[in-house]
Amino acid sequence: MVFKYAILTTLLVISSFGGIDFKSLQDYPRSLAKDFYIYRFLTEQNPSPNQAWELLTQAQRLNPTLLKALNKHINEPGFNHAIGCLYLDSSKFWEVDSTCKAIRISPSLFVTFGIKERKELFKNLNSSYPNAYDWMEALLEDEPFQTLLESKHFLHVYTQSGQNFRHEKLNHQIPNQKLQALSSNSLFELFVTKVVYERIHKNIAKSLLTLHPKETAPSSRAAFLLGLNALMHGNLELASAWLEQSAKNSYYQSNKDRALFWKYLVSKDINTLGLVGQSWDYNMYSVAAREKLGLEPFELSSVEATIKNRPHYSIADPFTWRETLEFINGRSPEALEAIAQDFLTQETLPHYTFIKERATRYKEPLFIIPYSEYLEDLSDERKALILAIARQESRFIPASVSTSYALGIMQFMPFLAKDIAKREGIEEFDLSQMFQPKIAYRFADIHLDYLTSWLYHPVLVAYAYNGGIGFTKRLLMRGDLFRGGDYEPFLSMELVPYAESCEYAKKVLANYVAYKQILGQSVSIWDLFEKLNQPDGVDRFRSSN
Asked: Distances from the Cα of 86 to the Cαs of 45, 130, 267, 296, 473, in angstroms?
């Protein structure tokens, strides 16, 4: 029986932001999409203080971007003071009152002050807010490590105090008994992440070698990082034990595959690699395992639609997409299967795929090429790269809006979209145009022209697309990543310091291999790994300085 439900309708098809007034904005349902349009209303219109205050109460998520925009229009001393203090330039810290200092202070800022200043600040804040700033007390000494370690604030201060301070003042051996106690703390994973990613805290890194999975059970992610730490110190037996623990405790199949793949790299046990090759999850590790073992590659499923569009449904309206998400939330797999069929049109193929994959609990990944007419003039190489990124960014949903207001299929940040529109001479450009697949693909092609002029490999391009070209430049200029050696390029790929970009690039790489295959240009993922060990982009960055 076909599952019947009410047709989802567009609340408002946005062709131009200039047509939305305050009353219309109030009628929008609370959502990230509404937050985005509140931000636009605040920055592009001239709202009254009362209007801004009303919109503040209707926002779903008050990120820094939205708070700063609200602060320019709300005429309420308490709110203005709090926001001003929250984002106060550190150079003006000593010019503000104690309440403002209490709002602005953090371990990373506190440790930049001299001991005399720290003592004065702690005295003032502790008298006004007893017990709220206990973490400062251990930092009133020039050498605070031991006192801090004996306090309950060690992990909080360590993870929040900045890399230089960690290296200069906290890089000491930690007894095994203390590490075991810390391993049950919710901040332990972040602590291990800092130690392993930054690769300069050698004393603490050596201390971590005293931990063993038989004695403690940190998170799967922490266990994986402890395995890498042991590997980098040449303790292959300990590394293997931690990787096995990580695989055992992984909730997501991709994380389990990651741990087992690394266990294979450590042990060279072909049976362990075989477990990864048998994985149902399509990811970088399982693709690599199947290729290495000579197994049949994943059968890449796609789907085509004969019907052009779905009546009364706007793919370019983020509120319609929000309503769709709410409608499918909590539905059974059987109900989702039926709902998906109603979206099997050329225009709503991404929506069909999104619902279909949820119905199968993501065990049947689909690699679609929606809106292909807008990619016809591009090379297959560029098509594969755009599709690989789009699949990871938004699952091709045209009206996607992220928490940081990245927009559309290609998740363009507003500042970047505006910059490209200006350089391309697009008159009367409106950000809502990023919800149009044609514009999204066009802007992606333009942006990738720039990124690929610097970067030669899809993984490096993915870092830059996600984290920015500046982030990628700093990454390559460090000198300790993607320079060849044992366990490369895999070790470098795991140690990219921005976790989001680290995982993002691995997923884009797997997508890229899939789309190259679909476009008739099969590529070896192991060849791509090998090329990543030849980072000519590093030399290009160096020569530009």
From this structure: 25, 20, 50, 55, 30
What total number of domains does the chain contain?
A: 1
pLDDT in tens, 179-201: 999 999 999 999 999 999 999 99
Residue 35 token pair: 């937050």
Task: Convert the pLDDT of each residue in 122-165 to its tens digit.
Answer: 999 999 999 999 999 999 999 999 999 999 999 999 999 999 99
Which residues, 6 or more positions from 319, have their beta carbon under 8 angstroms from its beta carbon?
10, 11, 12, 28, 29, 31, 33, 34
Instruction: Give the N- to C-terminal CA distance of the chain in Å, as an integer.
Output: 66
pLDDT tens digits, one per residue of 154-183: 999 999 999 999 999 999 999 999 999 999
Which of the 8 DSSP states describes residue 2?
A: P
Residue 22 lies in a domain: no
Give the integer Cα–Cα distance in Å for 298 and 281: 9
Domain membership flag for residue 539 = yes
Tell me the H-state helices in 92-219: 98-104, 107-110, 115-128, 145-150, 154-160, 163-169, 176-182, 188-198, 202-207
The share of the chain scoring above pLDDT 90, in percent, equals: 88
In a domain, 470, yes or no: yes
Asked if residue 409 belongs to a domain, the reply is yes
CATH for 372: 1.10.530.10
Contact call for residues 409 and 421 (beta carbons, < 8 A):
no
E strands of 202-323, at which residues?
none
| Residues 259, 227 contacting (CB under 8 angstroms) | yes
Core vs surface per residue 140-158: b (16+ CB within 10 A) or e? eeeebbeebbebebbbbbb
* Residue located via tokens 């450590």: 266
d(CA 481, CA 314): 45
Residue 82 burial class via C-beta count within 10 angstroms: exposed 0-12, middle 13-18, buried 19 and up: middle
Q: What is the mean pLDDT of residues 313-317?
A: 96
Interatomic CA distance for residues 342 and 351, integer angstroms: 10
Phi, psi (deg, nearest 5) at residue 182: -70, -25
Reading the block at residue 488, the tokens are 């490369």
Q: What share of the chain is helix, strand, coil (3-state, %, to 5)?
A: 60, 0, 40
CA distance 341 to 216: 48
Look up residue 8 and give its two tokens. Answer: 């989802």
Torsion-angle region of residue 407: left (phi > 0), alpha (psi -120 to 50) or beta?
A: beta
CA distances from 122 to 96, 130, 132, 165 (A): 15, 10, 10, 19
Range of the domain at 435: 365-543
The mean predicted confidence, pLDDT, of the chain is 93
Task: Name the CA radius of gyration of the chain, rounded.
Answer: 26
Residue 176 near residue 211 (C-beta atoms within 8 A): yes
